[in-house]
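Let's do one together. I've listed all components of the complex below, 696 residues spread over four lines.
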Amino acid sequence: MPTVDDVAQAAGVSRQTVSNVLNSPEIVREATRQRVLEAISSLGYRPHASARRLRTRKSATIGVRIDPWRDGISGAVLDRFLHKLTEHADARGLRVMVFSAADPDDELARIRRLREGSDVDAFVLTATTHGDERIRALTEQGVPFVAFGRPWDPETSAVRHRWVDVDGRAGVAGAVRHLREQGARRVGWIGWPHGSGTGDERRAGWEAACGVDADARAALARHVEDGVTEGSRAAAELLALPEPPDAIVCASDSLALGAMIAARTAGRPALPVVGFDDTPVAAAVGLSSIEQPLDDVVAAALDLLFGPAGDDVRPNPSSDEEPTDRLLAPRLVERRPGHLALDAIPGT
Amino acid sequence: MPTVDDVAQAAGVSRQTVSNVLNSPEIVREATRQRVLEAISSLGYRPHASARRLRTRKSATIGVRIDPWRDGISGAVLDRFLHKLTEHADARGLRVMVFSAADPDDELARIRRLREGSDVDAFVLTATTHGDERIRALTEQGVPFVAFGRPWDPETSAVRHRWVDVDGRAGVAGAVRHLREQGARRVGWIGWPHGSGTGDERRAGWEAACGVDADARAALARHVEDGVTEGSRAAAELLALPEPPDAIVCASDSLALGAMIAARTAGRPALPVVGFDDTPVAAAVGLSSIEQPLDDVVAAALDLLFGPAGDDVRPNPSSDEEPTDRLLAPRLVERRPGHLALDAIPGT
DNA sequence: CTGAAAGCGCTAACAG
DNA sequence: CTGTTAGCGCTTTCAG
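Okay, and this is what the predicted structure of the assembly comes out as:
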């Protein structure tokens, strides 16, 4: 495997010039540069990443914790996020290292280890929670990071840090408004129990846009654990109401799938149902869903960490100079329900 | 950040002794070892990974290509594989680096780059195909790797390499046999078009175990592209037969979900349907499914690469010494269909 | 703009 | 068993 010295010799320059061609091309005379570049490609030279890292103390690598696979359909979002992250990172010449951890403490320990070896420059935190310990800890330790998920409590908000999130409230409100424009008068809601930041935000979007009074809202909303069965049961309840909803928006695709099945079972296969996250299942069964703009999320996260271009990690934000967060709007993906099995049966 | 020198000084030994304590503890006297260990933890010393890599020319890191997210439910298997891989790797002190690539050529180029920088010691190839170019290329280049997926053609089989796969044929045959023990007399099959190794294997399992003659087999089998809609349509056809199947086994959960919906629509909600891969969707809707033993797959892959313990990559196999592949049996996860929406509707 | 010198932190050889 | 001596390949001073 050739080294800088080999290249230098082949090009008839000093070792340093080669390094300059690679790292600060603008200060090298064009002719020399060409000669060096030629030598590089004819020798098939590749800089040795570890040597460079040892010297520069950076790795151009970002770390992401990869969660244990949770049951439920919604978990897929983080996987898609990881895919996107990898693609964008590759495009910027960054590498992505994944690791697993049993709990937040374990995650912090692993992060420390990865960083001390200069294995990883910066981290992406996913799934922020109420009272997330990670944010304060990493900020105190000076570990550069960006969170996918806004701060959900005042203490965490007070810690100035970088984050990107998707505006679930706006997404749901938009979907509800759209349904009403299509003629829906009573849009139901199936969401999660109160207390999860994400869930409460999404529900707030429904509340703001559904256009019915508090009593009707109480009747038209259900809050259950995430799951197809739960969504099915909740939807069945709503549909059995004296004044049933004429459309249902759900906090997740799992709930929405359940609602869709319940609607069919109740003889209302055309009931508009909207899910959240636009998972593959939604696409597969023809369910409308609110899609998180993961491409934009990832691009924003990398911008925050590394600046608009380049692979130099910026230190965590200290004062209030530039913006350190980004809230992105999701998009409704519309599909026609019922295009599926019913039509597919010959003779129906 | 402390270095070996700091530790050596604190412990009153030479720099080398510290290194020995870390890398060959058995050659250091117990008392000295203790003293060094104490210094290490009191200083919070961590070896610098890049320096070590530069010196030893290995990284204790494995690389995995992460595919662009495909639509369809089945893609989830590779994600779960990645999760498992990360967990097992962490347990062995290995790191996992993910990267994306546009196509197999691009993948090879990226692999070369990652390896030349000593960024990655070995690779895990997923989703092997007919005429997979990667296997020959990596073998020729001497890049250590293990494939998740057996060789599907004679040329690739002739290239001695390490691989792990799941015996889809045995899995399907087992499921069919089980259904027959439960009383099914005509077990149908919905699979993929001929030509995909995986699909053909699974179909062969059905063929071997279904216990009907060739004519009946022809009637009871459908081969369609993967997808819920396709599965639904195929199942509807089978159920409309003069002698319909009394159970259906499918090559994927997507197909099975479609079949399940079709069965309900056709008024046969209790028809046993079995999918493949045991994806979250199957669990969500209560679909039986054949589960790939990913834990075992990953453990076997790492064993093949690194030996039963340790983090030293073995070179690719040359002669026929040890076994270099492993075929694992999947497991049927049984669920009761129909526990879902129908029962959940109040008043039914 | 180009060249020479120094050293990042670590471990593989050797000599004691 | 312990200490000394050399680099791994690269970049960052600092003179020419």
